[in-house]
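Sync notes, pocket subgroup
Present: LS, DG
LS reminded everyone that the earlier model was apo-only. Rerun requested with iron/sulfur cluster included. Inputs:
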Amino acid sequence: MTSPKTDTSMHQLHQIHTAMGERNLYDSVSYCNRCGMCAPVCPIYQILPRETTSPRGRNQLLRLWLEQKIKPSLADKTLLALLESCTLCGRCKQMCAGDIPTAEHVLEMRRMLRLSVLPSFLQSFLQLRGSHPFLFSLVARLGIFLRKVHLIQIMRTLRITRLSAFKWLARLDDLLPEQVVPLERKFFPVVKQAARFAVTPPACIYLPSLEAEWILPQLARDTYKLLPQPVLVWRHTASGLFEYVYGDLARSRRLLCRLIERHERTENGKLPLVTDSIDVYLFLTRAGQVLSGQPAWEERARRFAAQIRFVTDYLPATEKVPSRQRVQLECGALFERQGKPFTQARQILSTLFGKNFVQCSYTDTDIPAFGYGFTLHNRAAEIDFKTVAKIARTKTKSVFTLSGLAALEMNRLLKQFYPAAEAKHIVHAKR
Ligand code: SF4
Ligand code: SF4
């Protein structure tokens, strides 16, 4: 099916998983039949209703590019706006009858153009977690200390954070809880003690997300308690997700291969690897796609992906929580809004809260998490407002999320527009 006119040398991913099986980039984008059904659910199209900002427009751009009918360049402002504005939320895929992975196509276009959408300091800092975890830890602690001594507040007062190079700092400051406590102080003493007395082999591995490790120790603690004991906790371990989305694919692959090797060395690769972040889950279950075209790794990646679990697999939901308050599920995630964790999460909340669980249509705008506010300075406020409007309209009091980062994003908005509600990770649903 590949057109003889296409240039495959630009492709970064060898194969993309499509509804028709593994396909190369051109075949994957060619399945888009331009029906336009995806446009109304795209959060960016809702704000900027233009063909170029619709999922269909993004797919057509890629197709024309691969057919060498256009020559994109970083100097083209319209093109940059189109590529930067996608939140990678995957809502278009959910709506599409052909399951076209538009978010993956946008990512490929960014990689082909070497377009970095995160502020450069933030990008370099976050990359340290994978390459130099010790240095990352030092810089993160320094940042926490400077925040504690009100440096960011001083920068805000002096309006330094209004400069485009520092806008992300104000967003980060709003996002973080007042007190940031790294995980080890409150959580690792418990883990160390448990490990000392463990005589049986581990039952599973817990890979805490960046936010659980650095900002939300309660999320790590509650996840740890849910899991079958003894639990092996892998600290300071990057999955490669960040590099896949914001860095480069080669680096992401290196981190992923390192993780796969470590998993294989631990109890012969038979242990389930559990994450509290839906984004990490969706990335790791794509290990086969990420390492496609590398014969030595493809099969190992698929075996590894089969062992990835999201925390909802271990969340019991047998009895009702005595509550009259309405609750909602916030499905914000990268790439996908459908599949096992989403179905499980709905079932769990429905069992726990009965008719107080408000089922929302996915055409309502929700949070395209994973730090969208850092990349979409100009549009984030509009997306934020639509999200909170949905919660206020249904008089919801608790919003459950599938990642700690989505809960942080959501709480930042709620504090600003609808303080009657609060957001929590779904592992806290029974507390
Ligand atoms: S991505 Fe899917 S829904 Fe959107 S235009 Fe293409 S085929 Fe239609
Ligand atoms: S991934 Fe989200 S933002 Fe991007 S085109 Fe699809 S719906 Fe729009």
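DG: The longest strand covers residues 204-207.
LS: Residues 32-38, 55-56, 59, 92, 95-96, 98, 100, 102 surround iron/sulfur cluster (ligand 1) (CB under 6 Å).
Action: DG to write up.
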